Amino acid sequence: MPNIDISKVSEIIKEVAADKIAPRYLQLGDGHIKTKSGPTDLVTIADEEAEIELTRILKDFLPGSQVIGEEAVSNGKAVRQDLQRSDDYFWIVDPVDGTHNFAHGVPIFGTMVALVRKGERIASWIFQIPKDRMIAGEKGAGIRIDGASFQPPPKPSDDEDFKNMKAFISRMFMPPTIRPYVDQQVTKMADASTHRCCAWEYIELMEGERAFSVYKRIEPWDHMAGVLLLEEAGFYVRKWDGQPYGGSDLSGGLINAPSEILWERVYETFLKEPLRANPPPGFAVR
């Protein structure tokens, strides 16, 4: 395993954000915003320029490594399946996570980077650009925020009533066979809203501001960096079918919970019934 200078990669990410992303905030002009899969799936010139720069620098930083970036996959220049079938080290890059917020002047966005090999998470970085706040983690070595060691706060009890809990339950990409049931169940929660930005949601979960999170769309650039941080903080992370998350199998979805017991409660309460009635294609029903 390579000896990665965590602080040096942090500086690389900060420098690219300062050069390619921050100057574009609130300054996007005509032709600087495009749509991808739909009207709310946006890409900006900042996404594209920052990913190109990070790809170049990170490949040089770790010779022989590869990069899988959100925009490269969208443009057909990279494939996420290489994460499992290649022995190479991969940098997974989301140059601007929370692009919709960034494009609409909402200061909730950031850069997410993870280093992985054959699906195993090695290190990760989340830079919350509007806060100038860097959160970095290394497998087995814990988490640091702006260079200072992070100690996870106490977790909610396994039998805590959902009505007293706040969580992130992302329903935007849930199919119509699942979403109405989940919409009904979230009324039991104190709060189940999202920021539309994993770079914010994973950190608030890690810091105890929310109890758990549920996602349907589980692209590696949205989740690999945050999952490593949660695992270092003692969370139980599994796909909806109970299998570990490796970033290339996108069937089902993801639940991040502070314990296995609470993970099971979340699955039973929000997903079990609709998934058994109408399992998504390729999904192994539990």
From TrEMBL:
UniProt name for this protein: Inositol monophosphatase
PANTHER family assigned to the protein according to its UniProt record, in alphabetical order: INOSITOL MONOPHOSPHATASE (PTHR20854), INOSITOL-1-MONOPHOSPHATASE-RELATED (PTHR20854:SF4)
Record-linked PROSITE patterns: IMP_1 (PS00629)
Keyword Hydrolase applies: yes
This protein's record includes keyword Hydrolase: yes
Record: residues binding Mg(2+): E70, D94, D97, D222
GO molecular function: inositol monophosphate 1-phosphatase activity; metal ion binding
